[in-house]
Write a structure and sequence with these properties.
The complex is a heterodimer of chains A (130) and B (413). With 130 residues, chain A is of the alpha+beta class. Chain A has a three-stranded antiparallel sheet. In chain A, strand 1 and strand 2 form a beta hairpin. By secondary structure, chain B is mainly α. Helix content of chain B is 72%, strand content 0%. Chain B has 19 helices and no strands. The termini of chain B are far apart. Classes of the chains: A alpha+beta (130), B mainly alpha (413). The interface between A and B is medium-sized, with 23 and 19 residues.
């Protein structure tokens, strides 16, 4: 057995189309359930919008924070951590400890809580049991 | 709003300026959401206009707004069934609402809330321009439209910037708290930087709406006064306040009756604001007594020395030397070269300027070429001075400043 990270990408769309996507939450639930039953699911989650990102770099022992996602196309995705933190300050503090922050970048993105996803899906008309 | 015709409206306007930040800061802690708290405070001020016209202005407008904003927050939370942690927030607000007298917070907790709000608005994970806008919006008395005019951007652009920052605070869970000791110096420095940016935007007035820009200086000084009250043991907080007050004291003298820029050594000292100068000097003394020199304190000391009768250039050159050690930026090096040029003669100044002229970072920086021209003129190299003046004139974006440079260029012929 090997582990694989599936990275999910999609273009941003107009609110109406976005609502149609939100309403698809039951489909995602079904999918997750089948992956779980097959013993394949190690973890999954949804991220908040890209403009909630903060990029952390450490250069010459100085912490550099940038509002927004990492933008250097020469840097390639090399790994991930999923941390449970009290708030953004704690997440940023831990990010600065990663050796890669000294020669690369760490993009810190908040995960969207399940309740938020359910609220959005309901607002978009999805029929979800309470 | 006209105070004489409508005392209720005047009282609301005054309460908006004086109490809004305090009420907002405390409500954010109670509801745990910037946007919701801001909306509820906005509602409360709208309520006040109606209620105070009908029933007269209450004895304690701030307390009235606090209670009204809390009730509006309860209404909003009841409607927004989807919000996370809604039940706990509602219960806490209702508990506060049932207490009659102690509902109004004591001084210390009000101060703590305002300090939390400043640190959240100036959080380094937010875009710098958003930090400036959010700080002015949340802690100052300016509207989004006024902030937009002050920074020469369209109002919807500024509105979006503020909304986006608030969404990031909520979604990324930027804490509403004063940073702990290990992070405090860095974070406080970030706060001071935002306040100084606001001041400079108002002070530099390279273009745009003079009136609003004056208000930016006023807001920055108010924030400085608030910070010294909240953090009286920090030397840089006093240093920044001193720096802003000393600059602001000379505001009326910076431009003459024809709108021309007036250099410091040629300013009419009688129009300097004496009270403001004294306050600035007192703030500087407080900073010096804490015995922790920092960049704002040194800049304030330089400004103070420049304002004395008979300028002590060797002293100023020495202060710039200390500043250059703390913040070795090209602009500080440039100012040091100018001071040394007055203290030890133009040749000494030109020697310090040479690496800056060769380096290229300040290639398009007008003051570098203006300073170069002055030093060359004083050293007797008029042809060189003319070239440097022409370069400075080509780079100047300010009509008043350009006119002054042209006058000096004519003087070399």
């Amino acid at each position: 057995m090997s582990q694989y990270l599936l990275l999910l990408y999609a273009p941003e769309v107009a609110p109406a189309e976005q609502a149609a996507r939100e309403a698809e939450l039951p489909v995602w639930f079904e999918l997750n359930e089948s992956l779980q039953e097959a013993g394949l699911l190690a973890g999954s989650g949804r991220l908040h919008a890209v403009d909630t990102a903060t990029t952390v770099r450490v250069r010459d022992d100085e912490v550099e924070l940038t509002d927004g996602p990492f933008a250097v196309t020469k840097e390639l995705l090399g790994g991930y951590y999923l941390l449970e933190c009290r708030d953004l300050d704690e997440a940023l503090r831990q990010a600065t400890r990663l050796p890669i922050a000294r020669y690369g970048s760490v993009e810190v993105r908040p995960m969207m809580p399940m309740e938020d996803m359910i609220v959005r899906a309901r607002e978009a008309g999805a029929d979800l049991p309470a | 709003m006209n105070g004489r015709d409508d005392p209720a409206a005047a009282a609301v306007a005054r309460a908006f300026r004086e109490e809004r930040a305090t009420v907002l800061a405390t409500l954010i802690r109670h509801v745990g959401d910037f946007q919701l708290a801001e909306d509820a405070v906005q509602d409360a001020f709208a309520d006040a206009v109606k209620a105070w016209r009908r029933d007269g202005v209450p004895a304690k407008p701030g307390a009235w707004i606090t209670v009204a904003a809390r009730r509006r927050a309860i209404d909003r939370l009841r409607r927004e069934r989807s919000r996370t942690g809604r039940a706990e927030r509602l219960a806490e607000l209702m508990r506060l609402d049932e207490q009659e007298e102690p509902a109004v917070s004591d001084e210390t907790s009000i101060d703590d809330d305002r300090l939390r709000l400043i640190f959240t608005c100036c959080h380094p994970a937010l875009d710098l321009r958003a930090r400036v806008a959010l700080t002015l919006r949340a802690l100052g008395g300016l509207t989004t439209g006024e902030i937009a005019r002050g920074f020469l951007v369209a109002e919807p652009t500024m509105g979006k910037r503020i909304v986006r920052a608030k969404r990031k605070i909520a979604d990324a869970n930027i804490p509403y708290r004063v940073p702990h000791d290990a992070e405090l110096p860095d974070r406080l420095h970030g706060v001071l930087r935002v306040v100084y940016l606001i001041f400079n935007e108002g002070y530099s007035a390279s273009e745009g709406d003079r009136l609003v820009r004056g208000e930016l200086c006023g807001e920055a000084i108010r924030l400085g006064l608030l910070l010294v009250r909240l953090m009286p043991d920090d030397a840089e907080v006093w240093g920044l306040l001193a720096l802003m007050l000393l600059h602001d004291a000379r505001r009326a003298a910076r431009v003459d009756a024809e709108g021309r820029y007036v250099a410091l050594d040629e300013q009419d000292r009688t129009v300097w604001d004496e009270a403001r100068t004294r306050k600035g000097m007192r703030a500087l003394e407080r900073a010096v007594r804490l015995r922790r020199p920092g960049q704002y304190q040194l800049q304030a000391a330089i400004t103070a020395a420049q304002m004395e009768e008979g300028v002590d250039w060797p002293r100023i050159a020495e202060l710039y030397g200390a500043l250059a050690q703390l913040t070795p930026t090209p602009v500080v090096e440039l100012n040091r070269a100018v001071a040394v040029g007055f203290a030890d003669g133009p040749e000494a100044g030109l020697e310090l300027l040479a690496p800056l002229l060769g380096d290229g970072t300040l290639e398009r920086y007008q003051p570098l070429h203006a300073a170069h021209a002055e030093l060359l003129r004083r050293a007797g190299d008029l042809a060189g001075a003319r070239l440097a003046y022409e370069r400075a004139i080509a780079l100047s974006a300010n009509a008043v400043e350009r006119a002054e440079l042209e006058r000096r260029l004519l003087g070399t012929r």
